[in-house]
Amino acid sequence: MRGELSWKELEVGAIVTEPGNAAEYRTGDWRSERPVRKQELCIMCGNCYIYCPEGCIVLKEGRYETDLYYCKGCGICANECPKGAIEMVEEGK
Amino acid sequence: MPRRVALEGSHAVSEAVRMADVDVIAAYPITPQTHIVERLAEMVANGELDAEFICVESEHSAMSAVVGAAACGARVFTCTAGQGLELMHEVLFVPSAMRLPVVAVIANRALSAPLNVWGDHSDVMAIRDCGWIQMFAENAQQAFDLTLCAYKVAERPDVLLPAMVHIDGFHVSHVVEPVLLPEEETVREFLPPSEYPFPLDPDRPVSMGCYGPPYIYTEVKKAQEVAIENSYEKVLETFKEFKDVFGREYRPVETYRVEDADMLLLMMGSYAETAMLAIDALRERGDNVGLVRLRLWRPFPAEELRNVLRGVKAVCVFERAISFGMGGPLCAEVRAALYHLPEGERPKVVSFVGGLGGRDVSVEEFEAMLRRAKERVSSDELEGFEFVGLRE
Asked: Which among B47, B65, B46 has a CA at the least distance from the CA of B55?
């Protein structure tokens, strides 16, 4: 990822010459707690999908999952889940 | 053939900017800089200069406007003084990090309070770390010459940094002096149109001034520091090219009668011309004194300064600013540059502060300062600084 560039590889003035690369920014780095989902409790209501402010709840093979590349760990999904299927777990544990 | 004309220092700058054929000027009037932009506004209104003149509502906007214009590849100009430079402060750090070759002339002025429109270097010292190339002119001719040099070095593809020329408020900005004005053709040849490599262009989109989180900010700052360090050699080349075309020679560190000197007086700005008379008078009486003027303030010419000062018994630093609670900021940098010289080659340094808020320093006062400097060196009173011309 571009964040690993050395100072010598930067364009003059740190200009970004490749448009639209904000998608590469790993906002998941900000997270101190990550959502852990118990798929057996999930009723596929889609509340987490709707409430996630980052749009990082994705459907994979018919089940909801969190894209941890972008998830900032805000915990809204866990708060909104009517079944308590999402638990916020401290990073590093 | 160059024409010898009588010009106010401010108008010498305006002439240089006109001959540089700038595209965009944004400025807000402030004493003692106003005459520069007033004349430029006239030139634009009279059709003598084909440029956009943006009348902005503040210096913060002036710098923002020229940063934007420079990002489009325009050759730009702004100027200010004192409080205006302070209001510009926040934006000054942007073109240096974004590597935009903005050129500004500062008519150095004291800072409030008390309100004072006269000259000193308080404004310069407050923006010392803004990342611009900074040069000091002593008179109207140098103000003209260094403005051209500022464009020449700033726009070099291997430099791309903003450059600032300092002229003392009133002592340079408002004094009429003879100035050799070159043919416009010669200036055009010296300063061809700017070729900024990444102008904002819908066909070649780039993003400028992006967000720089912790994982990249250090790398960006390293690249910026290397750029300004490397610009030192390019400043030397620019001064050489300037001499080849116009015949006048500039150096990052300039000297006057330093041969066999025991004590060197060191300063920046127009008081060096008064100090020369003091050096002459003292030399006549058998005192081995000389004068050192810093032409280039950033990048700081530490090595050249060491070469000039090495082995001299003492250096007397005179400056027009105080870093409150620390002393003279120029003196601190001179001392730092000399610190690693081996004992025996390292001069003793004494610090004097004067000429604040437009206070004159006379030839006699410079002579007295050098006599006092000698006393301080022989009695080892090296710490702190003394005011010049202070009423106790």
From this structure: B65
C-alpha dihedral sign at B145, B150, B155, B157: positive
Q: Taking phi first (over 0 means left), then psi (-120 to 50 degrees means alpha), and beta for anything else, what does residue B31 get?
A: beta
Three-state DSSP class for residue B369: helix
CATH code for residues B253-387: 3.40.50.920
Q: Give contacts of B 114-173 with A, CB under 8 A.
A: 160
Residues of chain B with CATH 3.40.50.920: 253-387
Per-residue pLDDT of chain B (392 residues; tens, 9 = 90+): 899 999 999 999 999 999 999 999 999 999 999 999 999 999 999 999 999 999 999 999 999 999 999 999 999 999 999 999 999 999 999 999 999 999 999 999 999 999 999 999 999 999 999 999 999 999 999 999 999 999 999 999 999 999 999 999 999 999 999 999 999 999 999 999 999 999 999 999 999 998 888 889 999 999 999 999 999 999 999 999 999 999 999 999 999 999 999 999 999 999 999 999 999 999 999 999 999 999 999 999 999 999 999 999 999 999 999 999 999 999 999 999 999 999 999 999 999 999 999 999 999 999 999 999 999 999 999 999 999 999 99
Please list every residue in chain B whose beta carbon sits closer than 8 Å to the beta carbon of residue A16: 206-208, 210
Q: Does B99 contact chain A (CB < 8 Å)?
A: yes
What is the span of the domain harbouring residue A63? 26-90
Residue A5: closest CA among chain B residues belongs to which residue? B216
**Surface-to-core class of residue B307, CB atoms within 10 Å of its CB (0-12 exposed, 13-18 middle, 19+ buried):** exposed
Closest CB from A6, A17, A25 relative to B219: A6
Q: Are B198 and A10 in contact (CB < 8 Å)?
A: no
Give SS3 for B87.
helix
The interface predicted TM-score of the complex, written ipTM, equals 0.85
What's the CATH fold of domain B3-246? Answer: Rossmann fold (3.40.50)
Decide if A4 is inside a domain: no
Question: Is A19 a domain residue?
Answer: no
The domain that contains A51 carries what CATH number?
3.30.70.20
A69 found inside a domain: yes
Q: How far is A8 from chain B (nearest CA, A)?
A: 7
